[in-house]
Each structure stands twice: as C-alpha cells, then as structure tokens.
Amino acid sequence: MNRAALELFGLDRDEFLGRTSYNSEWRVLKENGQPMLPEDHPSMAALLSGQPVYGSIAGVFNPRRNSYVWIEINAIPLVREVETKPYQVFVTLHDITGRRLIEEELRERVADLAEAQRVALFGNWKFDMITGRVRWSEELYSIFDMEMTESGPTYESFLQLVHPEDRQLVLETNRKAAATGESFEIEYRILPRSGKVRFIREVGNARKDRCGKVVGLFGVAQDITDRKLAEKKILGYQERLRALTEEISSVEEQERKRIAGLLHDEIGQVLAIMKIRLGSLCSTEPEAERKAELEEVLAELQDTITFVRSLTSDLVPVILYQLGLDAAVESFCEDFRQRHGIKVEYQSSCPKVPFHDNQLLLFKAIRELMYNALKHAEARNIRVSLSRDDTALRAVIEDDGVGIHGKQEPENGGRFGLFSIKERLRNIGGTFSIQSTPGSGTCVTLLFPFSGSRTDRDDRAGS
Length: 463
Hints:
By secondary structure, the protein is α+β, with helices and mostly antiparallel strands. The chain folds into three domains: 3-95, Beta-Lactamase, CATH 3.30.450; 118-223, 2-Layer Sandwich (Beta-Lactamase), CATH 3.30.450; 323-463, Histidine kinase-like ATPase, C-terminal domain (Heat Shock Protein 90). It has helices at 3-9, 13-17, 42-49, 97-120, 138-144, 155-161, 164-180, 225-282, 288-315, 318-323, 325-340, 357-375, 416-427, 454-462; strands at residues 28-29, 53-62, 67-78, 88-95, 122-128, 134-136, 184-190, 198-208, 214-223, 343-348, 381-388, 392-399, 431-436, 442-449. The strands form three sheets. The chain has a five-stranded antiparallel beta sheet with strand order 6-5-9-8-7, sandwiched between helices. A five-stranded mixed beta sheet has the order 10-11-12-14-13. Strands 1-2-3-4 form a four-stranded antiparallel beta sheet, with helices on both faces. Strand 5 (122-128) and strand 6 (134-136) form a beta hairpin. Mean pLDDT is 83; it is low at 410-416 and 452-463.
C-alpha cells in the first residue's frame, strides 16, 4: 500500500491494514450511486472468484476530505504455483474524481437541454454526408411521432413524413445548403402517424472540413403548429375587423347622407323661405326701428343658412360628386384655411379624376389628417399634394406640428381615425405610411389604387 493509495482513502497505514471489506466504516458506492456490498468490492470479488476485475468504478468516502473519491480499480488475484486459490490481490487505483464531476455536469447539461427541448417543442438533428448517417435528439422523435432507433432515422424516412406539397421545397433547401455551405431557414408541414398536419420551422447550417468542403448539415427543428393556428385565428379576427370597419363606414356614410338630405331638403328649404319672407318685409319700408331689427334677424338667418350649408358639405361633399376629387380637395383646403386661420398649400397634377365610390375614402382620409394636424399636432402650416399614375392616386399631407409619437401610430393602437384610414385603405389594396419625428412635423403618404372601373379605364385611355 503506497502513500498515494492511502491519500485516496483518507487513512493512514495502520487504519487501512486494520480494515477488511466487511468493516462497517467503509462507505463505498457503485458507479450508479447505489451502496456496494462487501463481497462486490473489486479486491474481494477477485479474491473470492480467482478472476481479475478490470475497470471497476467505485466511490469511496474519504473522511479527511469529507467527500467521496471516485476510483477506477483493477484487481488481479495472485496464486502460488502449488495452490489453486489466490493468496492475495494486486490492486491498482486511478483517481477519476475530476472526470466523474465533468461527466456528471455533462449529464446534467444534457438533461437540461432535453428538458428545454420538451418545453420549447424543438429538437436538433445532424446529417453526416460522408456516412449518410442521420442523428436526431429525443425530442425530435417526439415531434415527428417516430420510434427511436439505435441506427437513427434515414433521410428517406424523414422525407416521407414531409407534406407532399412541401417535399420539393425541403429537398431543394437541403441541396442548396449542401452545395453552397450557406445557412438556411425554412417552414414546412409534416404528416405524422396521427394524421394531423403539424407545422415545422427549421434553421440549419453546413459543417465543413479543414479544406472548406461541406461534410454535413446541422439544424434545429421546432414545432410551431400552435403559433400557426393562432396566426390563422388572428387573421380571421383581422378580416372580421376589416369587414366591421367597412360596415361601420358604410352605415356612417348612409347616415351622413340622410342627415345632409334632411338639412338640405327640410331645414335648408325652411330657412330659405324664411329669408325670402324677411327680405320681402324689409322691402316694404317698415318703420326705421323695426327695419333695423328685421335686417339684424335677416343677417343672423343668413349666417345660419351658411352654417347649414357648411355642415351639409362636411357631411356629404357635394362638390366631390359633381366636379371630382381635385376640385373637392382644393375647395376643402380653401375653406379650411378660412375657417381656422392657418396656411394651407394645395398642389395637384391630376385635375381630371372622375368620381368613384372609393375616392370618397381618400377625400375623407385627407380631411381627417388635416384635422389631426390642426387639433393634435398644433400645426400652423399644412401642405397637401395630389398626383397620379396609371395605377394609383397618391396623396401627401405634410405639417409643421409637434409630430406623432410611436404610441399614436395606427399599428400601435393610436387614434381610431388613423387606424380606420389604414384598415380601409388596406382593404382596397392601398397603403398608408407615416414619417414623423417629435417636434419636426409629420408627413403622411396615402397610395390609393384605381378601382379598375370602366370610367377609370376610359379616362386613363383618353389622358
């Protein structure tokens, strides 16, 4: 017994020689962490059986370190020539505590990785292009609903699970990665044994040898079925929201027309008749005092008529229907300037745009954005420009106000007016974009496709 062995056991020579394998002070563990019986100690097993024991792993409690020391043990029985039973055992000890700790840490990390993959529904794979061998993680077998095998799945068995409509895409993606060495990202569907389609997102890269030759592929595959189903549900909600927005807008427009008709046909007519009658009374040369009162009432009545006409125009812009978009926007800009006392500049390069229903949306969008610039951005100068090409109208509304903060933008649930404009434009294939910096004004661009009606085509053909 040398000094190194005594240090491993944490004993002095007398303590060690005074013990046998059956001594209760020995605390020995098997490789799996279970207690080792005295007769299973490698030296005792070799002594009792007469057969050598190689590479036995045991954990022996070291009282001086107050911890277990892991040892790889070889025990060789020694037999005299005239005897058949061993008289002693030659034992070599190799301290593998450091290796054991590394292995335990590695096992913990592998277990943690496996748990993470189960939680996140992803697995990893490796394809050796030299040997053709494919290796999957345990979770990947679960995702693809396949039985684990020692040899691992084949590439062909994997392709059989890929949805027929996506199989060619997977093949081409893998071939390209193998040929170019580029990383890749792909989404595809699989048809596992359950028969229920599942969606997979896969990210991978190529592995190369020292010469730069691609020798394998490595990737991670994640089950994104729940996300895809949620996206589909969200898209359904968005479509319903767009339809609801359109319905609200249609009902609103009908109500506007009804109210405008009521103002024009009922109230407007009554006011006009009253004006005529008052004008007639004023012309009959009444007393001076009474004439002054009548003229004052006549002036107030004229203001009321003007207000009713303005209100009717706001509800339903008649000029839009009669003279077209360019004239309607120009008239609104001039009226806006007079009403609110701010500078409004209007430029147009499309004076002949015939009216169709969708242009009402563009007119209302311009009007909404100008009111936003006045009320919310506190702008003092507004510039509106209108242009067109063969496929679309473009409206640009700029102001010098305080700008729009991120939370006010339509995508972030800002003002409903902006959100409504964006959704309705998107519903007819248009676009809505904002460029704004707090304190530096705002520029909104509306791209508005032509409806494709016969009137539009005739107009474009003649222009």
